[in-house]
């Protein structure tokens, strides 16, 4: 049995989060093995500090020599096994350059990454969630993972059903915010006199790395205005530094009534903010998965992407998906030239507002039952 195992999942935010259950299954089945994770620095906070990992090898892609330094640190590990959960050319190359004698990955793979593996796992279908596909790959190394990870989970939104009424929060996706992350969020909320007992905070995440996954900014502004008209409702826009211009366009018509959290927190600081919020409205992007990981209810807007493969991995979500003849195309930009994509344009503010109200009413009914 392997005494050292390297997990290769370099990016992105959601993909790294989705690999956590498979990685924990490996740890549970191989408690005495040395377990490492190769990851890009911008997403390393997700795995850095995890008590069940022995080593995190980070790739900072900003410098010209960074890759060579990264490979040098990888090879010091003298890995028995490298298991590539990404299946891209760069991750396949990393698994090969790690020096691992056994290199596990799926076939067929995108970008011919399977050329770098000597233990290839046939992929029956892509139409399973990324979490479940990762667990299936891990089973090549450890055998049956049932009982180790609580997957698959029920995702009622795939049948256009409302969220399940009770959600047992599981540690599928453990995150470890620092004390500084927690204090930063607490200070931010205190400065705005937010009262979690009397008020609700809805977060709007308008930016998606893929343009085809973005809902129009003007509709986010309209949604924010409708939410702010509800008693006891607070609204904030969230996102990284690249989201600032978009968040400004959304917040500007409403002034200081919309709180600005974009570019304010670290990755795990954002996770902390999500955990203290009532709901997140978002397209298919990393923060959606971050919210699902900490148990925050989600209203997710899908067009070009496929909720079967990359939907929020939680029972506590509502996914709106117009399902046009051309979707899901999985494109970065609409291949038909629509700006915004027609599949996102046809999701109306009325539909999103109704989904938010449904999710809020379900939350009220659950809270009432718990207090009874």
What would you say about this model in short?
The chain is built from twelve helices and twelve strands. By secondary structure, it is α/β, with parallel strands linked by helices. 46% of the residues are buried.
Query: What kind of assembly state do the chains in view correspond to?
Result: single chain
- Percent of residues in helices comes to 25-40%
Q: Indicate the proportion of strand residues.
A: 15-25%
Low-confidence stretches: none
Q: What's the main sheet like? A: 6 strands, parallel
| Helix/strand class | alpha/beta
Order of secondary-structure elements? EHEEHEHEEHHEHEHEHEHEHEHH
Radius of gyration: 21 Å
Mean pLDDT: 92
Structure description:
The chain is of the alpha/beta class. It contains 12 helices and 12 strands. The strands form 2 sheets. It has a 6-stranded parallel sheet, sandwiched between helices. Strands 9-8-7-10-11-12 form a 6-stranded parallel sheet, sandwiched between helices. Strand 8, helix 7 (244-251) and strand 9 form a beta-alpha-beta unit. Helix 6 (217-228) crosses helix 12 (349-371). The radius of gyration is 21 Å and the shape is globular. The protein starts with a strand and ends with a helix. The model has no long low-confidence stretch (mean pLDDT 92).
């Amino acid at each position: 049995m392997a005494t050292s195992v390297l997990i290769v999942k370099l990016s992105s935010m959601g993909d790294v989060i989705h690999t956590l259950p498979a990685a924990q299954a490996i740890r549970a089945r191989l408690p005495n093995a040395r377990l490492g994770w190769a990851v890009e620095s911008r997403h390393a906070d997700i795995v850095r500090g995890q008590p069940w990992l022995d080593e995190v090898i980070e790739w900072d892609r900003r410098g010209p020599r960074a890759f060579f330094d990264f490979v040098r640190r990888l090879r010091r590990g003298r890995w028995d096994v490298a298991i590539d959960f990404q299946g891209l050319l760069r991750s396949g190359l990393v698994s090969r350059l790690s020096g691992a004698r056994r290199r596990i990955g799926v076939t067929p793979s995108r970008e011919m990454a399977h050329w770098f593996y000597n233990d290839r796992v046939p992929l029956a279908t892509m139409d399973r969630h990324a979490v479940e596909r990762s667990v299936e790959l891990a089973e090549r190394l450890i055998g049956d993972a049932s009982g180790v990870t609580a997957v698959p989970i029920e995702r009622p939104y795939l049948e256009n059903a409302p969220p399940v009424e009770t959600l047992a929060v599981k540690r599928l996706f453990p995150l470890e915010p620092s004390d500084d992350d927690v204090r930063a969020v607490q200070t931010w909320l205190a400065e705005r006199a937010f009262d979690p007992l009397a008020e609700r905070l809805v977060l709007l995440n308008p930016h998606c790395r893929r343009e085809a996954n973005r809902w129009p900014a003007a509709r986010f502004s309209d949604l924010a205005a409708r939410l702010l008209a509800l008693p006891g409702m607070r609204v904030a826009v969230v996102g990284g530094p690249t989201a600032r211009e978009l968040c400004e366009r959304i917040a500007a018509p409403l002034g200081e009534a919309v709180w600005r959290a974009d570019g304010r927190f670290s990755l795990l600081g954002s996770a902390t903010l999500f955990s203290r919020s009532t709901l997140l409205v978002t397209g298919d992007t990393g923060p959606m998965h971050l919210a699902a990981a900490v148990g925050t209810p989600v209203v997710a807007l899908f067009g070009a992407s496929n909720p079967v493969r990359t939907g929020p991995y939680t029972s506590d979500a509502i996914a709106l998906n117009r399902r046009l003849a051309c979707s899901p195309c999985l494109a970065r930009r609409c291949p038909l030239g629509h700006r915004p994509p027609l599949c996102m344009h046809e999701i109306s503010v009325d539909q999103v507002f109704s989904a938010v109200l449904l999710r809020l009413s379900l939350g009220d009914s659950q809270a009432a039952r718990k207090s009874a």
